[in-house]
Amino acid sequence: MRSQFFTIFGAELRRRLTSRAFQIGLVLSVAGIWAIAQLPKWVQQSADSAAHVVAVQASPELAARARPLLAGRYQVVDAPRGAEPVAFMHANRNVAALLKLDVRGGALDIAVYARDPGAFPASLVRRALLPMEIEAATGMPDARIAQILNGPVTIVSIESKFSSAAQADAARAIATLLITLLYVLVVVNSQLTMTSIAEEKTSRIAELLVSCVDLSTMLYAKIAASVSIAIVQLGLWALVGSFAFAGIGGELGSGAPPAGSAAAGVPMLSGNPWELLAIFCAFFFVGLLQLSSIFAAAGSLINRPEDLGSIGFPLILPIMAALLMGIFALSAPDATWVIVSSFVPFVAPFVMVARVMVDSPPFWQIAVSLLINVVTLVVVAFLAGRVYRVGMLMYGRAPTFGQMVKAMRT
Fold first, then answer.
1. pTM score, two decimals?
2. For residue 348, which of 59, 91, 116, 311 sits 20 to 30 Å off, Cα-Cα?
3. What CATH number is attached to the domain comprising 115?
């Protein structure tokens, strides 16, 4: 039995690793992760090279006060006061917007002529020129306005594992990436397992294997090969991502949880990247094994290759729902529905990873959730083996629900 398992496992693993489609997909996925990491830099470089020149049309006094307020975001130039705004914009193609400023009735009157109105929303322009508006309305001196607007703001983190907004944003970004990777690996490898089993059955290869190989052994060997492939993919993606997202990871690991927070009281969940990675891997393997078992059992029920889509798509929908729940949990990790769903099998791998990344759930909750999912895995694998044994031996039509229930009970 053991020799059969390793024989099938090795053959399936070699077949998948040497597949040209797998190799091309692996290269493209690595390139995609690197491109995603570089995307913000490319966007910033593109934005920096684009026209960010803003012309100010106002009296010399207003123009002199507006320039330093706008200079932090735009390159400011002067526009002649008598120039017609639309004609000026047509004549100066490098100017992205013209701001016409005037004081009327004790208020600052602002008119914006922009090539792209979406790049110059009223709220953004008003925020930049807020000191001028306050002075126009109150007559308050510039020094006093600057003192009010630049007053100190102290943010005290309560029951949070992050000491700054930058760390929290970085954690959510990494958690979103990990949850998405979990979804991609589960869906891709589970579907490949289902496809492989369906191909063996529809090509009648399974008829030859049944006579010399135990069906349950063959099923578990294929699932183990699928998980091994996922480990290879995850390891390579993590290696590339560790370099590509070094800035985000450094920001996340740069701060310790504030004293007195829940994270400070639980050293295991203090934000150590290796501990977080261990929790992610544990739920990743359990979730992948659960869903691979279900997809493999479903593959044994397929009698025609064209039925793969009709059977596979309904199985993907719950995984998509779990992915969305995990992403929503990032913004409300202590919500009641999030805590409850982090114990639910098939959903917990997504939701619990989200909670651990952005919150500090008690260790017993993580342990109980993992235990529930391990027990579920054992039950699912046992039932999948029974369904697989019935499905692989029936051709022409899928087994009825009653036949599958009878097989599971025998």
1. 0.65
2. 311
3. 3.40.190
